[in-house]
Model the fold of this input.
Amino acid sequence: MDLNTYKIYWRENNEILQVADFQQIDELNINQNTLTFLTKWVLPSSAAPFLSFSEISEGEILSVNMFFNLDWPELDSFLVIGTNGSGDPICIDKNLEEKIVYLNHDNDFERIYINQDVYKLASSLIRYHQFISLLIDSSNLNYERKKFTDESFEELKSDFLTIDNTCLDENSFWSSELDALLWERDHE
Done:
């Protein structure tokens, strides 16, 4: 996917892309690919499943220590780019090849893997959004969720593995989210 296609997708889906104007680019000490993504591609202000990237628009990327006003040296290498629905920071892990993770703040900032890089995160967000959009029945304006087939679920999983062959590893963010979709379908 190219930059223009990416931006058009989110615009057509009424999502605001967060414009990043970082004052401290040199201080971030991140690779050029990540920096290009954050300043040119950017992330939507919000995206399923209950993710927010509005922190990016504030003009500064903070470490987890700065974000939570902590003093844990091991958290200095995590740069906050968003939050999940539980308020856990979504981060770039500078110590581990700038992988995207979230840190479970209720569990001593346990590191939970999301994607290999910001580009794969962006592609995963779009694929998940496409899948969820097909499940929402807005024809009767009550926005009920339709059931999905095993085949469409397997296609979703296959697409995720094509985007990022490690994103469905055990205990990863996307693995948990897809498990939750399946559980919800089968138990509600």
About this structure: The beta strands are 46-47, 51-52, 78-83, 89-93, 99-104, 110-115, 136-137, 144-145.
